[in-house]
Amino acid sequence: MRIRAGIAGIVGLVVALGVTELVHGLYDLVPSVLGSIAQVVVEWTPGGIVTQGIELLGTADVPVLIGSVVIGTLAVSALLGILAVRRPALALLGVALLTALGIAVSFVEPFINPVATVANVVVGLLAGTIVAELMLRAAGLREVKKAALEAAPAGTPGSPESPAVRWRETGAGSMSVGRGGFLALGGGAVVAGLAALGLGRLLSGGSQTASAPKRLDLSNEPAGKPSGNEGESDGGGKEAVTHETLPKPPADASIDLPGMPKLITPAANFYLIDAALTSPRVNADDWKLSVKGAVQNPVEFSYKDLQEMSTLESDVTLSCVSNTVGGGLVSNGRWTGVLLSDVLKEAGVSRENISSASRQLVGRSVDGWTAGFETDIALDGREALVAFGLNGSELPVKHGYPVRLVVPGLYGYVSATKWLSEIELTSWDFDAYWIQRTWTKEGPVKTQSRIDTVKGGDNLQAGRVPVGGVAWAPHRGIDKVEVSTDNGNTWNEARLASQLHPDTWRQYVYDWDAKPGSYTLKVRATDGEGVLQTAEDRPPHGGGGTDGAQGYHTMEVTVA
Ligand SMILES: Nc1nc2c(c(=O)[nH]1)N[C@H]1C(S)=C(S)[C@@H](COP(=O)(O)O)O[C@H]1N2
Ligand SMILES: [Mo]
Known about the structure:
Residues 207-254, 533-560 are annotated as: Disordered. The chain is an alpha+beta fold. Helices cover 34% and strands 20% of the residues. A hairpin with a 2-residue loop joins strand 7 (385-390) and strand 8 (393-394).
């Protein structure tokens, strides 16, 4: 009895989720209830747990989290099903609470149609409740009076499965239609619910991935010439608008070897880290960037405003503070955008007038996520960008469409706000998202190097073995890379590709003449200021700091 009642509850939930996820898939402005619950869990868990989650699970944290949310909700619904047998009023109260919760969590999403969102949750849970009720009756777990029967479902969306309908037509006397009816009804409802859920997920994910970001189309005017709308009368001190693009990277900036990452990471391979379980989908036409806080002249920019300012391309390697030594949370992009210093200039901010009230530049995303760094860094001459393009196309949704920040030399968690909606100048007291969650306030990227053309555990053939990969110390550049084959006792200088830019990673290779035996390979880099990468091993968080991993990428190989 318990089992059947529990199953009825679960089937009801599957139907409810099916309805809500399908509607979400069909209509952007109704959020995914599942996604919203997971998002709220992320936001409300103490920093340490989330941080550990991200360290332990890496980018798998999102599916794992959603999985746990699903299991948790299924357990609750099974309990409600069981409760419904003896205490239907209490069970209904439970459903009402669930509805309220579903609505509440949906409202954490930034872009919703409130009426449709409420209606979606209510209709979904109503459909689920009705299906669960029908199953309880089919299982003979419910004595029903005629009146209650007639008050029951009238053309509810969800699951008009035939067994239920048949049962209602014949429905009199004992409400049990036996095992067959229960199974048919439950099975049918689950299949319909899961199909709706799957379709909904497919539709919502599909619209992001299926449509490749459009190529950027700025003016084709050659660099250095005005792009035109101000005409000849440029005497008023308005500077000429330019759209500078970069030439193709020189051939000698790449070393072509199996396993070597591409010098410029294709957008599809660009690493992905964020605290948003579903990427906010922003309509660029309604989007605004406001520059506010301790500024002389608060200003707003539309997407078009930015593209009509002077733009440039800049090659910048972005990396995540939670990258482990040898890990993959680092990529190199060719970004298009406006200089952050130009945007700040319009707000009246200059290096000279930074005060303690404007010491920190906080980027805030449409979903409220924040990152902050020293305002001075935006003005010290590096090409910090308000970026709207990656590799010649608009930003992919997952990487921050329509606009994000990219700051050479800083980890993403303090600087690289995606789905940017606000730049606020404020005091150093404000703690942004990951700072509240115990990561270090300042996040300069540590000098790192990685072996890519050989993997730990490889059995190599004696002879020439190219040991190559990438090294990065964004904004400082890379001057030297050395490879050791004897666990760091001796070092061999690697051949370097030409440096694309001090803000990007640099490829290297050491041509190792490998003799049979067992070896411990290591790599280390020296940055453009002559400082050697630190040897002391540390994980990204804990073990002596919360400011990113360090140490030499090390691996064991054998040569036969
Ligand atoms: N809005 C928003 N922006 C964000 C984040 C986020 O969680 N939300 N994560 C940051 C972190 S920790 C990193 S490392 C970079 C990653 O950028 P990518 O996903 O484009 O590689 O984005 C940063 N920008
Ligand atoms: Mo990060």
